[in-house]
Amino acid sequence: MFEKNPSHALSSANSHAASAAAYSTNRFSVAPMLDWTDRHCRYFLRQLTHHTLLYTEMVTTGAIIHGKGDYLAFSEEEHPVCLQLGGSDPHDLAHAARLAEARGYDEINLNVGCPSDRVQNGRFGACLMADASLVADCIKAMKETVSIPVTVKTRIGIDEQDSYQFLCDFIGTVAERGQCDTFIIHARKAWLSGLSPKQNREIPPLDYPRVYQLKKDFPQLTLALNGGIKTLEEAKVHLTHLDGVMVGREAYQNPGMLVDVDRELFASTSSPVDCVAAVEAMYPYIERELSQGTYLGHITRHMLGLFQGVPGARQWRRHLSENAHKPGADLQVLEQALAKVSRQYRESVS
Q1: Residue 248 marked ligand-binding
Q2: Quick one: which of 85, 190, 210, 198 has its CA closest to 148?
Q3: Mind listing the pLDDT tens digit for each residue in 298-348?
Q4: CATH 3.10.20.90 matches 275-349
Q5: Least CB-packed of 130, 162, 229, 257 within 10 Å?
Q6: Where are the coiled-coil regions (predicted)?
C-alpha cells in the first residue's frame, strides 16, 4: 500500500492509513479514460478519496520516448497513481516504464483492452489479446526493469475469440511467462471492427460470472473487475468474488460517489468528505496552474458533476460551463459557481 499521505481536503490521513493499508490499491480504482483522466482531473479526484488508485490516460511509448511534451507530468498529491502505457515493443515499454518509475509513479499498467482503430494501427490495445506470448514478453521486460508493480488491463475476448478457454489461455500465458500477478478485466469482449470505442463500452454484453470464474481458476492472481459499475453497493457485491473493482465514467460524471470510498471500501475511520471543502482545496492548485498559463476551463471541466442531485447543481454547472472558458477567467469564476450550490449542499448533508 502506498505510504505517502498528501495534504488536501481529506483530514486525519495518518489516523486511518493503517486500516486502509490492509487492502491493495487495486481494491478500488478510477479507470484510465482518454481526454478525461488528465493530471487536473486526478488532482481533483484526490480531494475526494485518499486511497483510490488513480490511472492516467493511456500514454504511448512513442510519446514518452520521442515526444516533445512532458507526457509523464503529475503532481505529488495524486498518489497513488498508475501510468497506463500503450505499446507492443518490449524494449520501448521497458524504457518508458523505467522513466515512469524514476518520475515516481506507483504502478505501470499495459493497455490490452482499447479497441479503437488508431490503437490497433499502432499494434497495441485489445488486438494484443490475440498474441499472449507478446504480451507476456512486454510484461516481463518491464518487470525486469522496474521494482514497482506492472499490471495488465484487458477484455474477456476479442471478435470470435471469446471462449472462456481463450481467456484462460491468455491469462495463464501472461501470468506464467510474463510473471504478471495482477489483471484488471473489462467484463465485455471487444469487437476490433464494426463498433466504435463508445459502442464497445456498451453493446457487447457484460459477463461478470466469467470474471468470477476466472478468480476461482486462478486464485493466486489479483483480479479486478471493470465495466458497468455505478455504485459502491455494486462494487461491494463484486468484491465478494474478486480482489478489486475499477469504475470509469460513473466516477467521472458523478465524482461525488468517491467521497464514501475510503470509509466503505478501505475501512477508513476518517470523517465524510465535504464536497465544498474539496472544491476550496483546489484553489491553491488552480492559482498555481493559472499563473503557468493553464486555462481555468481545463481544470473545472472535470468538476462539473460533483454536486449531482443537489439543489443548485444545475446553476453550478451552468456558471462554470459558460464562464470558465472565457479569456482571463480566474478563481473568481469558481467561487461564484460554488456560491450557487454550497448552502444547499451543506443543508443536504447536515
Answers
A1: yes
A2: 85
A3: 999 999 999 999 999 999 999 999 999 999 999 999 999 999 999 999 999
A4: no
A5: 130
A6: none
Q: Which of 41, 114, 138, 180 is catalytic?
A: 114
Kindly state the DSSP code that residue 31 receives in the 8-state scheme.
P
* 227 annotated as belonging to a binding site for a ligand: yes
Q: Cis omega before residue 80 (within 30°)?
A: yes
pTM over 0.90: yes
CATH architecture type of domain 13-265: Alpha-Beta Barrel (3.20)
On whether the CB atoms of residues 93 and 61 are closer than 8 A, the answer is yes
Closest CA to 300 of 111, 318, 308: 318
Cell output for 257: 460517489
pLDDT for 276-301, tens place per residue? 999 999 999 999 999 999 999 999 99
Phi, psi of 100 (to 5 degrees): -65, -40
32 is in an annotated binding site: yes
Question: 308-313: which pairs have CB atoms within 8 A and are 24 or more residues apart?
Answer: 308/253, 308/254, 308/256, 309/256, 310/341, 310/344, 310/345, 310/348, 311/341, 311/344, 311/348, 312/340, 312/341, 312/342, 312/343, 312/344, 312/345, 313/341
Q: Is 69 annotated as a binding residue?
A: no
82 carries an active-site annotation: no
Nearest to 242 by CA among 273, 277, 214, 272: 214
Is 80 annotated for ligand binding? no
Q: DSSP letters of 74-99? A: --GGG-SEEEEEE---HHHHHHHHHH
> Three-class SS of residue 104?
coil
